[in-house]
Amino acid sequence: MKSKIFGEGAYRRIEREIVALINSQPSFLSAKTSASPRAAGDAIQAIISDNFQNLLGELCTDYSADFARRAMADLAFQDRDGLYYVVDVKTHRLETHFNMPNLTSVERLARFYEDDRNYFVILMVSYTMNGNKVEAKAAHFVPVEFLSWECLTIGGLGWGQIQIANANVISIQEGYSRKRWMLELCDVMFEFYPKEIEKIGKRIEYFQSVKKRWEAKREER
User: Fold this and answer.
1) The domain spanning residue 19 has which CATH number?
2) Helix, strand, or coil here: 198?
3) Is the distance from CB of 173 to CB of 160 less than 8 angstroms?
4) Count of domains in the chain?
5) CA-CA distances (angstroms) from residue 174 to 7, 65, 150, 159, 178?
6) How far lies 40's CA from each of 65, 68, 82, 99, 124, in Å?
7) Rounded to 5 degrees, what are φ and ψ at 29?
8) Per the domain annotation, does 220 fall within a domain?
9) What is the C-alpha to C-alpha distance for residues 17 and 25, in angstroms, rounded to an integer?
10) Cα separation, 152 vs 103, whole angstroms
11) Three-class secondary structure assignment of 123-176
């Protein structure tokens, strides 16, 4: 079953209301913390967590924001059709020239998407600072399959981490087929893993030479 939230455009309303929510807040950063994108990001996430269930309204039947920092989700909810959404909240300060956020492990996503009722959703808030005041400029609230591979890349941690290549450049493919996107993911990984094998081969050769040098050394007494 396809999501009504993403199939009927409700997510666009949610995006607008997230921007309005952030901008309606009194200044929540001090002069010291306003210089820290991490502090601003944590504060924005906390505001969204506290208010997101109300933004969803009747779309939501079960909501949770109680997750560990390294979990796949910052928020999660179920809709009236029994579809389950985990939401990864990201923030991007537009004054920074480059930001390459991790989204999730390719292996974790592949397992999560074995169930067609599951949705892995990115909630990205882009903002600027006006003194100590956060000013939200845009929000993206989309399933990962709406993100074009033109703006994604794979990092080398573990099985591989899906990353946004540059948070200043996000390409949305509205209504994109999950099947098509997952097949593209497989093709990306078929190109990625041989390069990782080549890197590992070079690292093995390097430490083979390191071992030979140490084997040739005299033992100190």
Assistant:
1) 3.40.600
2) helix
3) no
4) 1
5) 9, 26, 14, 28, 11
6) 18, 19, 33, 15, 13
7) -120, 150
8) no
9) 13
10) 10
11) EEEEEEEECCEEEEEEEEEEEHHHECHHHEEEECCCCCEEEECCCCCCCECCCC
Is residue 91 one of the residues assigned to a domain?
A: yes
pLDDT digits (tens, 9 = 90+) for 133-154: 889 999 999 999 999 999 999 9
Identify any residues that bridge with 194 across adjacent strands, giving them in sequence order.
Answer: none
Residue 154 located in a structural domain: yes
**Confidence class for position 70, pLDDT limits 50, 70, 90:** low
| Helix pair angle (10-23, 37-56), 10° resolution | 130
Whether the pTM exceeds 0.85: the reply is: yes
* H or E segment to which residue 83 belongs: none
- Domain of residue 90, residue span: 4-212
The answer to whether residue 221 sits within a structural domain is no
Place of tokens 């910052």: 74
CA distance 153 to 145: 14
Helices (H) and strands (E) in the chain, counts: 5, 8
